[in-house]
Structure of Phosphate-specific transport system accessory protein PhoU:
Amino acid sequence: MTEHTNKQFDADLERVRSQFLAMGGVVEAMIQDAIDALAQGDMALVDKVREREKEVNRYEVEIDQCISQILARHQPTAIDLRMLLAVSKMLTDMERCGDEAEKVATVARRIHEGEVRTVPMVDLRHIANRVLNMLRLALDAFARLDPVQAAQVVRSDKEVDKEWKAALRQVISFMIEDPRTITPSIDLIFIARALERIGDHTKNMCERVIYMVRGADVRHTGAKNAEKQARGEEEDTETTG
């Protein structure tokens, strides 16, 4: 490569990196606004989430096109190639996080505009804050190329799964005790499930960060193995926990 080509390549890589981080920031704001809309009944926040979802879609298309152009023009190798491949996969998970946030906002509108006023008191803010923190840590791990922090996020998804199951049990008990809560209870289940899915997508992105830095594919191998790979230790093929 000539010096000019090298500079262009570096600029193109930085563009992908910075745009992905910007996309993540938009998704983070969507999740926060969606859960605030549920808690406060502020329908202006629902509209804001829906507008931001369009912005996320634009980011996905633009970054994907940029990656394709870099691969065609520069034929990158080693960590640069892994970064591009990882971001290409992470784009899908990030966009789906935005989709789930929009679902939360849409259901929040339905709850607050519905005729049923008997809504069970189920606090979903804790699980929402947990997945928001996961996403922040995932973006930070990506920005700093920190596989150890990424592995911590992979493990923390187990706690989100526990909270989702606890919320489900709580909502079901409300439905049994008071049939008037059935309709809003089902809506709350949809919201809790959407938040749990955001946790899953964030975990997927962190597995890609580990691949990007270490070159190790830790999907479906368990949190313990992800942590070992993140530290640069040998794979334990028998580890699944």
